[in-house]
Specification:
The chain has 237 residues and is of the alpha/beta class. It is built from seven helices and nine strands, in the order βαβββαβααβαββααβ. It has a seven-stranded mixed sheet with strand order 5-2-1-6-7-9-8, sandwiched between helices. It has a two-stranded antiparallel ribbon with strand order 3-4.
Length: 237
């Protein structure tokens, strides 16, 4: 399967700022350089206790980081759907129907308004409840129906993050690898560095070595030097 990324309109669903980089930062770099349109729909952000020396990060810090990352990747637009501590790390308290309707038509970057050709979302096996909820809501929003009545993106992919396999249920390996070159991987690594409140030294799931190691592993599995792995949910040839 080959894709002419210059012809694509890509919509990435990120439960929180940085998930889009961890899951598909290389693909975004590759596609944007080819001429694709790239949009990012964040679901939520809030003040967060963490393992940094300060012990927390604020939503204000995260918004400043998004601006830097957006400029770096030259996104065409981004939007935060449900900001604030009432939703951050609590998306499992939001009714599925409300999230699904937001994705389908309620957001400025909804499927109905944007009509993307490619959609990327987290894999449902993540240990994080916000990731699980986002994955399931996107899956519901893109359910099969009459394509003459509802927009059907041609390609729907679930991206992976290094800690997804922490859950005990069996997870099949990615069945699609997007080849990356070194500059595209460096773009991804710099994007994670720009999320300064979220990047960590090794060993950590968000360390530079973890991201590079996963890219090397997925590339090797496809017979190339570097890659990003995805699970195909829909592919209309």
């Amino acid at each position: 399967m080959t894709t002419d990324w210059s012809q694509e309109r890509i919509l990435v669903y990120a439960p929180h700022p940085d998930d889009e980089i961890l899951g598909c930062g290389g693909l975004m770099s590759k596609a944007k350089s080819a001429g694709a349109e790239v949009f990012v729909q964040f679901l939520t952000v809030g003040d967060t206790a963490d393992q940094s020396p300060k012990g927390f990060s604020t939503a204000e810090e995260r918004y400043a980081e998004i601006k830097k990352v957006s400029d770096h990747f030259r996104w065409d637009d981004w939007h935060m759907a449900l900001p604030g501590d009432a939703h951050h790390l609590r998306l499992d308290t939001v009714p599925r129907v409300d999230l699904t309707q937001l994705i389908e038509r309620g957001s400025p970057l909804s499927i109905e308004r944007l009509r993307p050709t490619v959609v990327l979302a987290p894999h449902r096996t993540s240990y994080n409840q916000d990731h699980q909820v986002t994955a399931e809501a996107v899956h519901t929003a893109l359910r099969p129906s009459n394509a003459a009545l509802r927009h059907h993106p041609r390609l729907v992919l679930a991206y992976e993050e290094a800690a997804d396999q922490w859950r005990s249920e069996p997870v099949a390996p990615p069945n699609l690898v997007v080849e990356l070159d070194e500059p595209q991987l460096l773009d991804k690594l710099l994007g994670m560095e720009l999320y300064g409140s979220q990047s960590h030294t090794h060993p950590h799931t968000r360390s530079e070595l973890t991201l590079r190691s996963l890219a090397v592993l997925r590339g090797m599995q496809a017979g190339v030097a570097l890659g990003e792995g995805f699970h195909v949910l829909r592919c209309l040839a």
